[in-house]
Design goal:
about 220 residues, alpha/beta, five-stranded parallel beta sheet, 11 helices, about 50% helix
Length: about 220
């Protein structure tokens, strides 16, 4: 599903003095999906490591970026010598030391674009006991899908174009259609999984089940 944030990632990737990017946001808003989709759409060779599933000991034992790179290559079986690579460190909150190490990617290997994200990142940033890489990383906050992104997801690109131009001059049919989709969006909300299930099954009831599941994830 198309996200507006892809435009931000594209601009970030092209920056002359690009810094590692730390994606912030609530659980299940689509941070990991956004990065994977961005890599696919812009033909980047994605090197992804999930620190909840894979322990990269060099983040804790070494400040040598080369040793970190070598260990990531071993675990992912992907080479950093490829062209157009993008390193994605997911669930980085599982290893807070890795957040501090982002500064060394910027200082020693700025040619490697690095994005990091984590579902519980806010708690780590609030209660951290390590030296934050101030001035060495960028932050971007990703929220749930917007109404415009919902319209893209359901294939109503023409409605988006009309909204971006002059909706006041649009026909009554346009406004009626827009109101219908807005009511849908008010019920579904912007969580990508809910919208995905609704598009696949056309069932508000099953979408509601995903709502309940997500609520349990937040509060348990």
């Amino acid at each position: 599903m198309k996200r507006i944030a892809e435009g931000f990632l594209q601009d970030w990737l092209k920056k002359k003095h690009r810094k590692p990017l730390l994606l912030r946001g609530a659980r299940q808003v689509g941070k990991s999906t956004l990065v994977r989709q961005f890599a696919e759409n812009y033909q980047l060779n994605l090197i992804e490591v999930n620190l909840e599933k894979t322990q990269i000991s060099s983040f804790k034992k070494s400040k040598n970026i080369l040793s970190i790179i070598q260990e990531i290559e071993i675990h992912t079986r992907k080479s950093f010598n490829q062209k157009n690579i993008l390193l994605f460190i997911d669930e980085i909150q599982a290893c807070p030391e890795a957040i501090a190490m982002l500064r060394y990617f910027y200082e020693s290997h700025p040619e490697i674009p690095v994005i990091a994200a984590g579902s519980l990142l806010e708690f780590v940033l609030r209660d951290h006991e390590f030296s934050m890489p101030v001035g060495r990383v960028e932050f971007f906050n990703l929220g749930p899908m917007t109404f415009k992104e919902y319209l893209w997801a359901i294939g109503e690109d023409n409605l988006v174009l009309a909204l971006d131009q002059n909706p006041k001059s649009a026909s009554a049919i346009f406004h009626a259609k827009l109101k219908t989709h807005l009511n849908e969006f008010y019920f579904l909300g912007g969580m990508p999984e809910v919208i995905k299930v609704f598009l696949e099954r056309k069932s508000f009831l099953q979408a509601r089940e995903i709502h309940r599941s997500l609520m349990e994830t937040y509060f348990h």
